[in-house]
Amino acid sequence: MAYYQSQPVAGRHFLQIPGPTNVPDRVLRAMDNPTMDHRGPDFGKLGKSLLEKVRQVFRTEGPVVIYPASGTGAWEAALVNTLSPGDAVLMCETGWFATLWREMAERLGLAPEFIHTDWRRGADVPAIEARLREDRNHAIKAVCVVHNETSTGCTSRIDEVRRAIDAAGHPALLLVDTISSLGSIDYRHDEWGVDVTVAGSQKGLMLPPGLSFNAVSEKARKAAETARLPRSFFDWKAMLAANETGYFPYTPATNLLYGLDAAVDMLLAEGLDNVFARHDRFAEATRRAVRAWGLEIQCAEPRHYSSALTAVRLPEGHSADALRAAILERFNMSLGNGLGPLKDRVFRIGHLGDLGPLQLMGTLSGVEMGLRVAGVPHRPGGAQAAMDYLAGNS
Amino acid sequence: MAYYQSQPVAGRHFLQIPGPTNVPDRVLRAMDNPTMDHRGPDFGKLGKSLLEKVRQVFRTEGPVVIYPASGTGAWEAALVNTLSPGDAVLMCETGWFATLWREMAERLGLAPEFIHTDWRRGADVPAIEARLREDRNHAIKAVCVVHNETSTGCTSRIDEVRRAIDAAGHPALLLVDTISSLGSIDYRHDEWGVDVTVAGSQKGLMLPPGLSFNAVSEKARKAAETARLPRSFFDWKAMLAANETGYFPYTPATNLLYGLDAAVDMLLAEGLDNVFARHDRFAEATRRAVRAWGLEIQCAEPRHYSSALTAVRLPEGHSADALRAAILERFNMSLGNGLGPLKDRVFRIGHLGDLGPLQLMGTLSGVEMGLRVAGVPHRPGGAQAAMDYLAGNS
Amino acid sequence: MAYYQSQPVAGRHFLQIPGPTNVPDRVLRAMDNPTMDHRGPDFGKLGKSLLEKVRQVFRTEGPVVIYPASGTGAWEAALVNTLSPGDAVLMCETGWFATLWREMAERLGLAPEFIHTDWRRGADVPAIEARLREDRNHAIKAVCVVHNETSTGCTSRIDEVRRAIDAAGHPALLLVDTISSLGSIDYRHDEWGVDVTVAGSQKGLMLPPGLSFNAVSEKARKAAETARLPRSFFDWKAMLAANETGYFPYTPATNLLYGLDAAVDMLLAEGLDNVFARHDRFAEATRRAVRAWGLEIQCAEPRHYSSALTAVRLPEGHSADALRAAILERFNMSLGNGLGPLKDRVFRIGHLGDLGPLQLMGTLSGVEMGLRVAGVPHRPGGAQAAMDYLAGNS
Amino acid sequence: MAYYQSQPVAGRHFLQIPGPTNVPDRVLRAMDNPTMDHRGPDFGKLGKSLLEKVRQVFRTEGPVVIYPASGTGAWEAALVNTLSPGDAVLMCETGWFATLWREMAERLGLAPEFIHTDWRRGADVPAIEARLREDRNHAIKAVCVVHNETSTGCTSRIDEVRRAIDAAGHPALLLVDTISSLGSIDYRHDEWGVDVTVAGSQKGLMLPPGLSFNAVSEKARKAAETARLPRSFFDWKAMLAANETGYFPYTPATNLLYGLDAAVDMLLAEGLDNVFARHDRFAEATRRAVRAWGLEIQCAEPRHYSSALTAVRLPEGHSADALRAAILERFNMSLGNGLGPLKDRVFRIGHLGDLGPLQLMGTLSGVEMGLRVAGVPHRPGGAQAAMDYLAGNS
């Protein structure tokens, strides 16, 4: 029974939404320490070590700005630091979160242009390249891509987007949202020439929500010098200056930083490549279960399968929300809901963050039992298929 | 990765030994509060409320002594408070823990007599009755039974033992070990006329080890007045006197008492009958899995099946310890080992305490995958059988 | 020894900066619970109850927006939701934080006008009234006041500011920063006709940093409809709409909300008026200590003394930072530093948040011993003077 | 407000009884980790490391037995492992706890002989020597001394007791209770030739109550081979055998062991000699305060002053319990009560465990304010005297 469960329920809640994820005890315990003086000497030591260490997770040698704000704030930060009112930005409609980011760009006075997809695959790379080639006078100032679209379970190929921009010979900045991929799916800020990587604490980083990040390239910092969108809270300049000595220009979210320190240590101890391989394996096991049930995976393009979550389509005439409600009530598990046009049509299984094979099997068993309880047509054997895979390959 | 895991392992450890069990967060958080003055006024209020409340878990209206000691201490307490050097006690060989209790009785200078079984069933009630009938001059001072034998997964019928003693018209005390049954399997101290119920904190009570209990009948208190085994730390007298006002004669294990307070609240909120029904259901699901695998359950008498754990026999020539080691390494789950003559022959699945259906499915999936990984001959489909049962009946 | 103390130091750190304050164990334990599904039914119940309950702390019946961002973010929110590019705002130079807020207004493209003071008193109310009377065509859109200036320990009289605005018959909005006063110093959003109250979690609310607040009047919501500063993350509209049912438009800082729930319960259990009286008493005790030492209080206007902190001036030729460093090293206490022009000239004693009389006495004793150790000229007897007061009046 | 305070009280409770002491956050957080399999491989690693490390705190190279039981249990363990029914033991009446230990010895069937003192000094070493010299045929099997008598604040000189036994040429075992001295006052099991050192977790070891210890000499192990008091739970033999590989013969108090691991690390990081010096300093500061108040210290022999606590006598006609109640209510501090004949005549200030100078000053200020509030005749200036000392010497 978790803190706010209103009914007495035995056993640990299965939080299998695609984030926030299950926070490991080690991280919770780190956060549960006294708040310290954020201007004192010990804070500087912590800050310096942490700001350095966190770069490894982004695979960058450049600075990473840490905001005491949730991920949506880091989206805003990426835009307001690099762009000016009316700037054209090329955004890719991968799903609900890409749509929200576009709406934010509009509210901030930018001129987003949207490359549509059918919400069943990642960003349309050839379309990006074509549009950039068209843009002879370089009106487009930035290309914005959601690396892992949390609403659909489709992962865009950032390496290919990079190559497309280069092939078009276009100077636009590349801004990438890794909120639900960082620390779960292979990602390389420097190697892929990303200018701003947007990230949040509550997914692969295994923290509660409340921290967010901008990894920033030299080119992005340069763009910031002339960008004219009003900004203050999210301004990189004061941040980067203060970070030099391990401090922050205004009060940081100290206890979440304790948690971050522990979480990054855990990721590096497991080894990032091992972390990614584990996510890949669990995602494959999940897809095998879905197929065995005879259900359809929302992502229609295998090269774009997400290793962080799998969105599953329900047969016509069946309600995904009724299924989720039944699973919550009977099996004490939270699954992700369908968003926007996918509302009630899909449910989403989060298999990211601090997760082991038996938690995954509990999760898939819960889905399979839920399908039966809720009367959703399916074949049994999905959990069995996942086990077959994991026992050969866990 | 738990506190002392020496390897970085993602995801929560599955602690599926038959105790200590998984301690719920609410209990851990309660324990994680500052230690208080055990002689101050607030302690008295806590103590009084707790000593009263805990009686409900034993289903007694009499006193329950709480020791700042692990369960083995409460075994000793039951003996030294009621018996005198050289006293004959009738004990029932249900398995390893019954054997240890007998050895303790010997070390304490008692004269235990052992009614043997084959470690595949609960106490032999007809044999108890027969032996008591024989004992015309009432040399036997106590009958000692382990309610749930943690080494075999066999639960003795205490109600029948009571009736046997009554049928024999014998005045012996009835001492019952409920260390691995209290809070998991239906148990009734008053209704079944038990004189001393021995219990521990780390199983159905969902606490870490470190507290133990004696529920004490009027007849037992009377016996204590003349019992001559030396005792001090475990003496009921000073305990019961101090408990009147909510205090203890020596320093209690304060932080574990905080946890006990939370744990009892949780059990009562769920409802004891619901708690027992949940354990029965999970035990049945587990046995269906074992049968589907084609393996043998250690308990050969269905009326004695334990709802707290299931011990599973391995086919000849296969090592249970090798299986457990493989499961620990590959799937991050601890299972119980075989004890005494069962060493390496059985493994034990704990399905007691703060457990939900998906944790159980994770557990059974882990066993099934482990059987495959370790090369133990079995049929797949055990987890599936458990799901079939739980989805109809969870 | 706290989590990040780099030296082994016995005993609890005294965090006596004017915020972040000492987080009570009950709040830390609440935060140390598993993160939950922020779209699930239990979250809605928590959210609804919390959004309602928190209003009492602001003494408002209107809505309070909760941001997953630190206090600086709530400053920005107050401005961007109510104002348009180039708007004139009347701000009051009470000290360092008022200056930072003005700089933020400038960076956001507003036209702040600054009413100067000498950093030794609260806002200059007659000057505000005079300036507003001058502003016949109502170019000034908002009056911004820091209720408790954390850099100087001077508290502005918001009730008087209200009366001044009314007396001038001016329609400007009243925006008030209560970051270091809310939950510590008497404050009344509704009664004083405040339009936006800005607050943070890490002072009187006794939480770690990471949450911030805008209490919003009807008039402010109306202003938001036409305000044209770009905004998205901080936009009230989506917030207020989602809050109706207890949810948030984007991921909230769940675990900090658990802590807020506990903290508000604690404040209401003690009673807000009792909380304020306690802060008043501790502030008076502190000032008596300072006077007994023969040192000067930075706040020169007794009607503006802060009940949250006391800034103390050092005699010429002595370094406040050297004193603070000595106290940190020898006595394991953090005090606040001088900011801006007060750098190295004052130190600040925080006496707000979860504080009892003996923690205050430890604090004042630490200052007195520090003065001696650091060779700062003073008379002994400050702690004694505080005790004399508290023992008569605690 | 601590977990079980029935009234809402701001600020941290001052637990200044002479144990249980304030448990450091680092220890509480360690304990707040999932319970692990006490028979698994990771437990063995933890156990082995911990059993080795803890020896340093006792300054022994021999084994230390750790019981999942409170300190009273370790008293019993020391007696039952080394003695036989009817054995004569020479015990020293230093105060209440020595009296309780003697009563335990009687209840266990031993024949204690008591060397009386006036409860205002440590053990009477010449009397011990004289009695042993008298005992020509070595009927006395053990000399039992409480190192630090928690009821009086008098510390016996164990080095001198050792020399007295040697001078008498007597083979008796030396059993020493260090429950309130270990980790606070210089103590050397090996160097002083102690045979059994009894200790508990909840004082200088900075843990909650629930663990206790026997450090055991070769001579004591040898005595155990022939000792005939019945024992089982407390038997060293099975313990020492299992400890060889890092395990325990029955379920250990796992989560308290986590805390012990953290606590021992903290003591060793500070350095035992530094820990003792800190306790000496705080005790001297406390005594200076008591003298400045014009009150009398219970310990009348300066060579026996305790560095762990100071018991203070009240003037005739004044109630120590009324004073303690007033301090608890007004200042949220718990002080120790008078025990046995000292009931209501003394109060005891604990200054041991995880304590810094400002906590001590808060404590002494609370006592001084309490004396005034409760109308106990005294001179002010005690806290000031302590500060004068600490600022010169902290």
UniProtKB/TrEMBL annotation, chains A, B, C, D:
N6-(pyridoxal phosphate)lysine sites (modified residues): K203
Entry similarity comment: Belongs to the class-V pyridoxal-phosphate-dependent aminotransferase family.
Keyword match Cytoplasm: no
The keyword Transferase is assigned to this record: yes
GO terms assigned for molecular function: alanine-glyoxylate transaminase activity; L-serine-pyruvate transaminase activity
Domain Aminotransferase class V: 14-323
SUPFAM superfamilies given in the database record: PLP-dependent transferases
Alphabetic keyword roster: Aminotransferase, Pyridoxal phosphate, Transferase
Protein name per UniProt: Aminotransferase class V-fold PLP-dependent enzyme
Pfam families in alphabetical order: Aminotran_5 (PF00266)
Any one GO biological process: glycine biosynthetic process, by transamination of glyoxylate
